[in-house]
Amino acid sequence: MKKTAIVTGCAKGIGKEIALELARDGYNIIGTCNTSLPDMFELKNKIEAIGVRFYSYKVNFLNEDETMGFINNIQKEFEHIDVLVNNAALAL
Fold it and tell me: The pTM is what?
């Protein structure tokens, strides 16, 4: 059974590199972003080319309803989560 990792804010930068490294280590990736959807789709292609699954979610973690919706979906769709990388950030 493959392990699963959540990487928040994974469309660009450090989050993207973390997601790619976890994928290379055999993890299925649950990735989130808020605004960088084209970058997220590019990452999905790269990760799936590695041979693991990539599940993308658009989530604004500053919005409580979106955050809770994401958590509820994850709990319903996945048996377990092995790793959480909380990389999502807000630059002001």
Answer: 0.91
